[in-house]
Amino acid sequence: MPFSLQLSHAAPASVDSPLLAIILPQHPSIDAAVRAVDAPLAGAIQRSITRRDFRGGRDETMLFVGGDTGAQRVLLVGRGSATLTRAVARRAAAIAARQAGKLGTGAMHVLLDGADADAIEGLVLGAAAGSWAYPDLQTQPPEKDRRARLESVTVLGADTDAVRAGFAAGAAVAEGQAIAKRLGMMPGNVCTPETFVEVGREIAARHGMTITVLGRAEMEQEKMGSFLCVAQGTPEEPRLVALEHRGGAPDQQPIVLIGKGLCFDTGGISIKPAPEMEWMKFDMSGAGGVMGAMEAIGRLKLPVNVVGIIGSTTNMPSGTAVKPGDVVRASNGKTIEIINTDAEGRLVLADLLVFAKRFNPALAIDAATLTGAIVIGLGANAVGVFGSDTSAVDEVLAAGSAAGEPGWPLPLWDEYKEQIKSDVADLKNTGGRAAGAITAALFLQEFVDGYPWVHLDVAGTAYSQVDLGWIPKGPTGTPVGTFVEIVRARARR
Predict the structure, then answer these.
(1) Is the confidence at residue 1, as pLDDT, over 80?
(2) Which of 131, 315, 326, 450 has the largest CB neighbor count within 10 A?
């Protein structure tokens, strides 16, 4: 049964539910609606708060067992002392959904008193995030030993147009994030460049988008030597996929979203160390984010022209693989000395950025799990944000903050360009360890021509190698939220 989301305006005490999750702030007091839920529990909720058994701290939970009708279980979830935002509501709802999954309730209602449209959107996103799983390749236990997966979530909210709009937005973005997460979680032998073609065609068919697909032969005609050098060591057919959502006026310049789609990255001839190389199946997270964003944008029918472009291949060592010291030519004519074949994402993006120019972007944003350096610099808590257009960078930072995918700006000073100067070509594909995320972004900037551009390095945020509490280890859905939020903000202008 597919996961489903509903919005209800019913009073909390009136719902029949295997689990009612109530989200409360730190040092909570309960209102009339929660007191009505507490009545069949003989005041257990109020006593727990009075005794400070439950204090409403972030991620704190307390479970009460009720009767056979009404709320059969009541779960209190703390959201802490932070100001209520979309991200705060999202985290609390995700905690509730994960608890529902552990209990095997199958369905859940969730209540956050006084939630505005933004908080309602967060509740939807959190419930979807906390219930998401990828069981496709696992043998399930015998039916008698299984706990029911959380397959239905009902959000309780006010009967207003704003709340309905917040719910619809959350459901659309959640579906986009589910696509991105599914693509990310697939092993490299399941998610291939052809998978992006299939998913792109499904999205295009659902939402009336135009799709363009290029293979190796077409990219050779386009003289995409930078992209193709990464693909020359693999028998997999490389793919460039472009989706066009024409929601705005015919003459409106589009927002162009660009994603790196390395379905697996061994490092090529400059091969990576074996430990934890399996995580390199997530090196397509930028492309997955573009696909997820296009799904959400299509569902929301946003009145903006948007183009999503992804470049997908695998980076493999072989007798035909590109070698350190080789020189290749990108589609804008610039030559590149390959210093490290593991700096391959920027080679793919270089030709995608040149390709993007034909759409005359109002703004182009690329996203890639590009460098380990960004993880050293910012950890797993912030997206690295780069761009030479200050207003565009500020716009993207605001979108990321609103979406709960915060970013931090880093400089693109000319002084760093010295590190990517080559003795035999126009530039080289890596400037060494120092300022590695910055020199990677400066490399990309060499292929941007005549349009505002922002680069997002999501290597630390697109997936997590540990359980984060509110979501399990694996894909996070970043940067779908940022991509969608930037388009929504443009639609509101």
Answers:
(1) no
(2) 315
